Amino acid sequence: MKSNIVIIVLGEPNSIFSEVLFKYFKSEKFKKIKKKIILIGNYKLLLNQMKKLKFQIKLNKISEINNALKKKVNIINVNYKFKNAFSNISENSNKYIENCFKLSLKLIRKNKVHALINGPISKKHFLKKKFPGITEYIANETNSPEPVMLIYNKNLAVNPLTTHIPIKNVSNFIKKKKIIYNVKKINNFYKLNLKKKPNIAILGLNPHCESTDRISEEKIEIYPAIKYLKKQKIKVYGPIAADTFFLGKNLKKFDVVIGMYHDQVLTPLKTLYKFNAINITLGLPFLKITPDHGPNIDMIGKNKSDPSSIFCAFDFLEKI
């Protein structure tokens, strides 16, 4: 596959994504990048947003991937009618966002592109409860039935076994088969892309990995999965109590931690590393990265947003 091209879907037009991209394109790191960057979105909208935010960046408008140039901000235009550079998030942009994703996936399939970065979307307006998140949306569009969400920081990555589901339903999805599947995907990803066998911690579901109920997810599902994975020579440890895991000694010992639900691992990771992390989707025909922030309505158009996550995304792609 073509590993020298990165396609970027601009996503929700009323978000901070264009701002953080502009900050990267004006940085010294962009001047040294080896990848060809191709934006998928509306050319005139991006120019308007650039003017609003007081950036001056030359856009190289192209019609096909083969015309992309290195160290240039290439863009393939997608039609979109708008009045202002930024406005309130609504359902008006849904068709535009959908067209951006469809074109991107078509280009990836046709040209065998290795990597996609997508900007944030509004779950409420774009997904409309049809999918829990953009991870599941892309998985559906690419016929990939079991995507794995890996929130990656170079010091520690986390994987929530369950993603955007109500907390009351979490225990129903804690299954030995799912734990084994996720761990194998992550282990193979590290070996293939980062050339290392990761140390993987697996957290328990219940406080202190204990349950006063007759059903213990640790005994029935989590421990048997760990026992099986150890026999496969994968470096897994646990179950470990979540309340004491994110201490200094564990941060140095482990590369990845598998949590049982979304906030069990994302809250401490964001507390530790703030926006210096990326959301990588495993299990797709290509590498998909989402910067670890949403549209951030309160910061739109203010030119005050933290661009750390998009820097982290490009640093990771350059590394691999």
Low-confidence runs of at least 5 consecutive residues = none
State the distance separating the first and last CA atoms.
Answer: 13 Å
Number of helices: 12
DSSP E strands, number: 12
Instruction: Provide the structure class.
Output: alpha/beta
User: Helix and strand succession?
Assistant: EHHEHEEHEHHEEHEHEHHEHEEH
Percent of sequence in beta strands? 15-25%
CATH superfamily of the largest domain: Isopropylmalate Dehydrogenase
Largest sheet: 12 strands, mixed
Over the alpha carbons, how many angstroms does the gyration radius reach? 20 Å
Helical fraction: 25-40%
CATH class of the largest domain: Alpha Beta
- Which CATH architecture of the largest domain? 3-Layer(aba) Sandwich
What name does CATH use for the topology of the largest domain?
A: Isopropylmalate Dehydrogenase
Strand order of the largest sheet: 3-4-2-1-5-12-11-6-7-10-8-9
Written description of the protein model:
The protein is an alpha/beta fold. It folds into two domains: 1-147 and 283-320, Isopropylmalate Dehydrogenase; 152-275, 3-Layer(aba) Sandwich (Isopropylmalate Dehydrogenase). Helices cover 39% and strands 19% of the residues. It is built from twelve helices and twelve strands. A twelve-stranded mixed sheet has the order 3-4-2-1-5-12-11-6-7-10-8-9, sandwiched between helices. A hairpin with a 4-residue loop joins strand 11 (278-282) and strand 12 (287-291). Helix 7 runs parallel beside helix 8 (217-231). It is globular. The two termini are 13 Å apart.
